[in-house]
Amino acid sequence: MSYRVVFTDHPFGDLDVERETLADLDVTLVDGEQTDEPLESLVAGADALLVTFAEIDAAVIDELGECRVVARGGIGLDNVDVEAATERGIPVTNVPDYCVPEVAAHTLALLLALERNVVSFDDGVRRGEWDAAAGDDLHRLSTRTLGLVAFGTIGQAVAERAEAFDIPVVAFDPNVDGDEMREQGITPVDSFGELLTEADAVSLHAPLTDDTRHLVDEAALEQMDEDAYLINTARGGLVDEDALTAALDDGDIAGAALDVREREPPGPDDSLRKRDDVVLTPHAAYRSRESVAELRRRNVENVRRAFSGEPLENVANPDVL
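The line above is the sequence of D-3-phosphoglycerate dehydrogenase; the predicted structure tokens follow.
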């Protein structure tokens, strides 16, 4: 039997990994990066979808016909209408743990860049300055509390790495038992608001849902200390960027480090790019040669499994199986 697989979008230079994984099947692999065809017509009648950032909404899903799987290459599923896929009986999969070491390391890198004034020092030296006193407001890391919003796999990995720097950690996650946190040396707090008031750096690791969109808004930022930092390596929509800009302007917090943005890439008029108190990276926390290779292999493997009748891994809507 022959199959048509559409890879809607991807940042890869080729699809060699995907073709190799599917080589034992009669598969036509369509590269969405090589066409300007509208998404809905591109996916029409596809037997499987590979997806990175494309918006797979109900209108797109309605065009899929007898699709065996929508395989999202990444952790979050906020760009896939899982409910619509479930109504059509289409399983949706993801790769929820492929880049845990990378995101945890990137989070610590951003934290250290803020706490140790790395970017500003670098800018000053490149301008011909040599002023260590520009860091007189720095603090010993053991006196600064890191607050983790969500304590899933990545949050736990961040906590483990923070321990190596002797950084105290508190965490808020209503889905994780406080005793489990204490066993890992983490102090649980009872509410998001309590975390905001206790933490000197707030690091976001929650999924983006209707309930968490703009979780960090004006009210949340007002609860943070004026020398506190905000770090986001999760999803851009967790932060109200207008409120963040206002908080920075007013000195309500000391700075921010963002790997993810509400709009990606940000436009040329993006005000956060022009600030000395903000560190920005281009949604790169997940990247390493190893993590990307693992992501591609595991994502397309679910397509192969769907065609071969094998159990799928990491199904977001198992009721359809």
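Note on the example: The mean pLDDT is 96. DSSP finds twelve helices and twelve strands in the chain.
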